[in-house]
């Protein structure tokens, strides 16, 4: 198999709008010990990357020349010394666990530590694989591992049209629990129902989420809330939770300070996916969960749009920030 030493790579030199993302030809060093070189077939976009680009992520980008991108699917082209679990030709996905500025995968070729690369079944299409790891591992880690979701639980998913939200609807269904989805726009209601939401609460100023959640659970409240939004609305979510229930905060789409609900007893978790699967054993279990779900059809990544060409990355970021999409945005380099 031939390897190239050039990689078309998306970089940005300053924080700002999508237009700061530009494609450069970079020399790619051969993989060193413990590293693998991948030919990238598809990139899955995440809100975190728009936040990094604009300077609003929880850490700042390293400028100039910051890389970006957590998720990719591709094929191994070359391996460095000591790599024995992966070989050229293996289909893989990138299980994000790195600093975006130094290891971001928006490129047609990347060199990464073998520890962030997971072999994928050949039957899993690259577009599906690029859209799967971060969303499903976040929903699985937050709901199953941290919140201990059980069959029959009611689970309120805020920002449910997001990549993680659409995955969470399926993860809740797979556990025999009941997903209640929120969106700000009526336009997305039917799609969320089609994806498996048992109920959709449209929040654009009309509906009180806490009141609706209690109405849908005969006054009891939901056992778990999975919240992507934070901000002052977080406090109101406390009113949606049954006594002793669990609120998992994993996103901060509302950039205002988050207010803690005080209707105790209540458990609040701050969930970080990058820290959720620290050992190879944890990662093996998350991969087992994902690939079995993709194989039996209970997990089906919702793809909002596929863009062809790294040059279209600014367009893809613009779509993400328009919030008109449902599910994952994918770019094929
Ligand atoms: N902690 C972790 O480990 C972890 C892992 C993955 C993602 N995240 C975080 O999770 C969040 C979602 O990420 P994603 O990539 O799945 O998002 P995404 O696909 O970009 O979708 C975001 C959706 O949320 C809604 N939304 C956007 N801004 C909002 C606001 N200010 N208030 C209320 N709703 C808003 C919109 O849906 P509607 O218009 O339908 O309301 C939008 O379509 C981000 O904050 C991301 O950083 C955290």
UniProtKB/TrEMBL annotation:
<keyword id="KW-0521">NADP</keyword>
<protein>
    <submittedName>
        <fullName>NADPH:quinone reductase</fullName>
    </submittedName>
</protein>
<feature type="domain" description="Enoyl reductase (ER)">
    <location>
        <begin position="16"/>
        <end position="331"/>
    </location>
</feature>
<dbReference type="Pfam" id="PF13602">
    <property type="entry name" value="ADH_zinc_N_2"/>
</dbReference>
<dbReference type="GO" id="GO:0016651">
    <property type="term" value="F:oxidoreductase activity, acting on NAD(P)H"/>
</dbReference>
<dbReference type="InterPro" id="IPR020843">
    <property type="entry name" value="ER"/>
</dbReference>
<dbReference type="GO" id="GO:0070402">
    <property type="term" value="F:NADPH binding"/>
</dbReference>
<dbReference type="InterPro" id="IPR036291">
    <property type="entry name" value="NAD(P)-bd_dom_sf"/>
</dbReference>
<dbReference type="InterPro" id="IPR013154">
    <property type="entry name" value="ADH-like_N"/>
</dbReference>
<keyword id="KW-0560">Oxidoreductase</keyword>
<dbReference type="Pfam" id="PF08240">
    <property type="entry name" value="ADH_N"/>
</dbReference>
<dbReference type="InterPro" id="IPR011032">
    <property type="entry name" value="GroES-like_sf"/>
</dbReference>
């Amino acid at each position: 198999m031939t390897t190239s030493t050039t990689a078309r790579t998306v970089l940005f030199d300053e924080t700002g709008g999508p237009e700061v993302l530009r494609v450069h030809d970079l020399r790619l060093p051969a993989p060193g010990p413990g590293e693998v070189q991948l030919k990238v077939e598809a990139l899955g976009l995440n809100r975190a990357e728009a936040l990094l680009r604009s300077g609003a992520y929880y850490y700042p980008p390293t400028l100039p020349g910051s890389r970006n991108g957590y998720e990719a699917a591709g094929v191994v082209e070359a391996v460095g010394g000591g790599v024995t679990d992966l070989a050229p030709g293996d289909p893989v996905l990138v299980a994000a666990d790195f600093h975006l500025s130094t290891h971001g995968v928006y490129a047609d070729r990347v060199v990464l530590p073998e520890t962030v690369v997971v072999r994928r079944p050949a039957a899993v299409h690259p577009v599906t694989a690029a859209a799967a790891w971060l969303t499903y591992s976040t929903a699985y880690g937050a709901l199953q591992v941290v919140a201990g979701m059980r069959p029959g639980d009611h689970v309120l998913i805020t920002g449910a049209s997001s990549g993680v939200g659409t995955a969470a609807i399926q993860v809740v269904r797979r556990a025999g629990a009941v997903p209640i989805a929120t969106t700000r726009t009526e336009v997305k209601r039917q799609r969320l129902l089609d994806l498996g939401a048992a109920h959709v609460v449209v929040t654009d100023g009309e509906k009180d989420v806490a009141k609706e959640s209690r109405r849908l659970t005969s006054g009891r409240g939901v056992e778990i809330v999975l919240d992507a939004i934070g901000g002052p609305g977080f406090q109101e979510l406390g009113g949606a939770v049954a006594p002793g229930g669990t609120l998992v905060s994993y996103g901060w789409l509302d950039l205002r300070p988050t207010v803690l609900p005080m209707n105790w007893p209540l458990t609040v978790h701050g969930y970080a996916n990058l820290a959720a699967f620290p050992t190879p054993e944890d990662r093996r279990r998350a991969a087992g969960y994902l690939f079995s779900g993709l194989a039996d059809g209970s997990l089906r990544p919702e793809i909002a749009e596929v863009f062809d060409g790294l040059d279209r990355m600014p367009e893809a970021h613009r779509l993400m920030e328009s919030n008109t999409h449902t599910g994952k945005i994918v770019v094929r380099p």
